[in-house]
Amino acid sequence: MAVIQHFPRVWLLSDARNDSALEAALLRLPRGSGFIYRHYHLAPQERLARFQRLARIARARGHVLVLADSALTAREWGADGIYGAALALYPRRDDLLRLATAHSLAEIAQARRVGADAVLLSPAFATQSHPGAPCLGPVRWRLLAAQAGMPVIALGGMNARNARRLDWPYWAAIDGLS
C-alpha cells in the first residue's frame, strides 16, 4: 500500500454538481478524511488550478488527496494516489495509493489482480447521479465486499444515515458530504 499515515474512513468525491460546496465540505470533513478529485468537466489548466486551491485546504486538514488521473499526473500535482477503473491503475511502479472503481465481483477481482489498495464499490444505494438505475442494496453490497480481500469503500447514495444503515467502516459520497 502507498505510504499514508492512516486509511481514511470517510471520502469526499468531487463532481461538477458539488463544486461550489467543496471548500466548505473539505473543512467540515473529519481531520484525516479522504478527498478524490475528479472534475472531468474542466479544461486541463482550469482543472489543475481548481485542484491546487482545493489541495491547500485538504492538506491543511490532513486529508489524503487522490486524483482521478494517471500516476504521472498525480506525482506532478502532488497527490497521494490515483483513482479509476482497475486497468487504469496498472502497472504499479510507485508508492501511490491506488483506489479502483467496481460495480461487480468481476471488477473487484480485477482490482485485486492489478494490486489496488482499495476498491470503491457502487452503487450501494440509489443515487442522484443515476436516477432510476439499479443499486446493490445493503445485503448484496456486503456480500460483494466480503469477497474483496482489501478495504472496500461504499459509494452510491451514501450519507451518514446510509453509512449507519450499511454498517460498514469506509464510505464515500459526492452529494451526501457536500
What report would you give on this structure?
- This protein has 178 residues and is an alpha/beta fold.
- The chain has a single domain, classed as Alpha-Beta Barrel (TIM Barrel).
- The chain is built from six helices and eight strands.
- It has helices spanning 22-28, 44-60, 71-77, 105-113, 137-145, 160-166, and strands at residues 10-13, 34-37, 64-67, 81-85, 97-102, 118-121, 152-154, 171-173.
- Strands 7-6-5-4-3-2-1-8 form an eight-stranded parallel sheet.
- Helix 1 (22-28) links the parallel strand 1 (10-13) and strand 2.
- The chain is globular and about 40 Å long.
- The relative contact order is 0.16.
Tell me the number of helical segments per DSSP (H or I, 4 or more residues long). Answer: 6
Order of helices and strands: EHEHEHEEHEHEHE
Rg from Cα: 15 Å
Identify low-pLDDT runs.
Answer: none
CATH architectural category: Alpha-Beta Barrel
- The number of E-state strands comes to 8
Domain module tally: 1
**Strand fraction band?**
15-25%
Indicate the CATH class.
Answer: Alpha Beta
Largest sheet at a glance?
8 strands, parallel
**The CATH H-level homologous superfamily:** Aldolase class I
Give the N-terminus to C-terminus distance in angstroms: 28 Å
Give average pLDDT, whole number: 94
Dominant shape:
globular
Decide which structural class fits the backbone: alpha/beta
Assign the CATH topology. Answer: TIM Barrel
Short description:
The chain is α/β, with parallel strands linked by helices and 178 residues long. The protein contains six helices and eight strands.
